[in-house]
Amino acid sequence: MSKRSSAKLVLEQLTKANDFYIDFSGDFDYEEETFESEIYLFELSDFKKDESDYETNVEASLCASQSSITSFQETPTSIHKGRKRKEYKKTSIVHSHSVVVGDSQICKHCDAAYSNKSTISILTVDIDTSLDEPDKPLYKKQKKNFTKAEEFLLQFIVSAALPFIIVENSYFKKFVECLNPGFVLPSRYTLTNHLVANEFSKIRNRFKLELIKAQAVSVTLDGWSSIQQNSYFGVTCHFFNELTLLCSRTLEISNLPGSHTAENIANALFNVLRDWGIVDKIVSFVTDNAKNMQNIKNYLLENIRTTESKISEIHHIGFLAHLLNLIVKKITKFSSVSIETCEYETEEQNETTGIPILNETENSIMQNFSDLVNNCRKIASVFHQSSIACEVLEEKQKLSNIKPNKIIQDITTRWNSTFLMLKRIFQQKGPINDALRDRKLNNKYEYLILNENEIITLKDSVCILKPFSDATTELSGVNYPTISIVIPILLSLRYKLLETNNESLFSTTFKKYLHYYTDSYLNKHKVLNDSLLITATYLNVRTKYFKIPEAQLYMRVTRR
Fold it and tell me: Which residues form the signal peptide (predicted)?
């Protein structure tokens, strides 16, 4: 018998069983006189029709495969039920919109019939046209674009000040894989050299478009040194957009090599203005009150005149909060010599007026207060450097039912830190003294215990310094213009310092000391005679009624 006849005979014998439906798939190998196949026999009696949704439940049997033609020919009864056929779950949401009827799928919405052999894309198109507003997406998009995800990843790292090496952390990788297994984290190299560069270019272009629409801009600049003694230079631009909303944009943060002379800083600032195309839009710039910053204006105007800009004058405004910080810092640098000669200084310049303001008693009071401030610094250092002292302090705070706050240290470069340190030590005076007496510290810090007079002095000094702290905070705002509140705040401070309500000798002396230096700095920098500050004050409806007897320009502005 030929090979074709043998195969034909096998199929004929199998199809004689009317109770079976044959699904045959396989390959004939005529050279080896065998064929490999898988024959799935489905019992017709197992088809059960569900009247509700016309769905069919099928029970399948697997017949042994890889049998020779001879075995099929001689023993057709060897075909028997095997293990159940694996049922695959239909995961696509498309199948919930159709029912199976025989060899067709009927759409529940339009009654259209499609073959079971059709792909789900055909059914998807039909359902999309049948449904006006589908509740859920019918299928997942195959083409995934992770550009937005990479942008959000970069923004997360930058906003949280995290290192780029976080993308190589094994647990972070597992976390991302759990959220989306298909997302591939970019490498640290990709973040640094591609994503950051692209995002920087995108933001820079957006800022440039905003500055093109701005009619006038003001800039603030400052310089500082890092822990590694690298010098940096930062420039921030402020303007109103087309919706009259105040906007602030950082234009530059870069290394500033060489000495920080006024000429070098002016050249660096001019390069930034030219790079951003706002040379002809700048009307003012704000700096601290150091000598090199005060001399920037002339060098900057010389550079601007070399361009085609029509700018002939630029206002330089010294940051008042910096002045207030210098005034308060005087109490930490107190000495009898400086008070008797009344020297006042900026960060870059020392000058002596030679006008005596304190008598011997007042001089002694201020010297004692300066010693108290230094003593408070030592107390703060103890609880920051000793873990045992910190634990003892927490125990004493719990026993006293006082909130367990940490002691704040006085840091030279942090504004208001002296006031905050004195305020916190006064609030925690009881637990601090109890902790310093505790035996666990071996009586090493008993000399730092605050006596009753020192506590009273702390209380008075905190009350006097609080207006300076509030003024510094108010003048440091970035969400509102501060130029119009400079003069009102100064007048309010002077009024507070001149108040006398049965105060102690220390309070009177301390106010006298602060009042003198406040006037000295304001007169030196001519703050109350600045026409721009006066005009801004008058244009603000909340501050226009503040009068300034010392400023002759005030009358000129009000008459206009």
Answer: none
Please report the sign of the dihedral spanned by the C-alpha atoms of residue 474, residue 479, residue 482, residue 485: negative
Instruction: Output the CA–CA distances (angstroms, integers) from residue 160 to 249, 250, 271, in the order listed.
Output: 19, 18, 30
Q: How many domains does the chain have?
A: 5
DSSP single-letter state for residue 296: H
pTM above 0.70, yes or no: no
Locus of tokens 């701005």 = 214
Expressed as residue numbers, the domain containing 38 is: 3-78
Query: Is 436 in contact with 376 (CB distance < 8 Å)?
Result: no
In a domain, 536, yes or no: no
Give the domain-ending residue among 275, 290, 318: 318
Q: pLDDT of 513-557, one tens digit each?
A: 888 888 888 888 888 888 888 888 888 887 766 655 544 444 444
End-to-end CA distance of the chain: 122
Residue 468 lies in a domain: yes
Residue 459 covered by a domain: yes
Would you say 441 and 457 are in contact if contact means Cβ atoms under 8 Å apart?
Answer: no
> Same structural domain for residues 344 and 395?
yes
Q: Which amino acid is at 230?
A: N
For every residue of 210-227, DSSP letters joined together read: HHHH-S-EEEEEEEEE-T
CB hemisphere CA count around 336 (13 angstroms): 8
- Closest C-alpha among 372, 340, 374 to residue 513: 340
Question: Is there a domain that residue 557 lies in?
Answer: no
Task: Tell me, rounded to whole angstroms, the distance of Cα 38 from its chain centroid.
Answer: 62
Q: Are residues 22 and 154 in the same domain?
A: no
User: Residues 442, 444, 446, CA angle at the centre, nearest 5°?
Assistant: 105
Q: What is the pLDDT of residues 93-129, one digit of tens each?
A: 666 677 777 767 777 767 677 676 666 666 676 666 6
